[in-house]
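Researcher: Here's the sequence for the chain we discussed earlier.
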Amino acid sequence: MTDRKLLERAAEAMANAYAPYSRFPVGAALECEDGSVFTGCNVENCALGCTMCAESVAVGNAVSHGHTDFVRLAVFTRGTGYRYPCGECRQVLNEFAPNLEILIGRADGRYVSYHLDDLLPNPFNSSQLE
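Model: Thanks. This is the structure I predict for it:
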């Protein structure tokens, strides 16, 4: 799948966001090794700590379908700035794919690409539980 197509899937997911408090809809599309794609959107809650980020919703969607082999994630928001996954989402993504490629798209069609290990240096991981 091309970068643009994955970003389109994230933009489509953003259309389903439930963001009445922040008015900041976000969509995510998570691509697996076999080419399957799982999407997510942010789901806000008036008890803000219960809010779910688009990236984590996409991970939950993939895992609930038996996939944990992630290769790329596209995140899409409106506006002209690039909006990066929050720290909690970076940690969730690191559980499955420390070298995940992350595409961050914006409304004007421009996007940037990073690897998760650049956005989350020195993450907490299972080796630290020993």
